[in-house]
Amino acid sequence: MADNTMMVKIIAPDRTFFEGELSFLEFNTIEGIIGVYPRHIPMTVVVAPGVLKLVGAEGEKQAALHSGFAEILGNSVTILAESIEWPEEIDANRANEAKIRAERRLSDDTQDVNRAELALKRAMLRLQMTKKI
After folding, report:
1. Exposure of 40 by Cβ count < 10 A (0-12 exposed, 13-18 middle, 19+ buried)?
2. Rounded distance between C-alpha atoms, residue 55 and residue 121, angstroms
3. What is the pTM of this model?
């Protein structure tokens, strides 16, 4: 591993989503967006829904990272994702239907607002990612 790269492993419940060397990684946390370069200070963070940017020798890739936890240890990063998708894996029609359902739930006072807001964020993220294909 070169001095200007770090080992990154992203694990989802159903697969190892990504494993390889990167020079930069960016994602949302509950406290804001974090950018990680090699030799980053060690920390553990809670992942929030947002675009995951992976920068390596082949250029930049993006994915929809919905939630999880990340452990940063200098030259290694491990993300345990509850849900993560490459843009080409997202069904735009299904995401749009999920958005409509979440908006309906938000307008209904009897629904769990936090759950509906999270569903809306996930649907909006999926729709955002499908426009970048």
Report:
1. middle
2. 24
3. 0.82
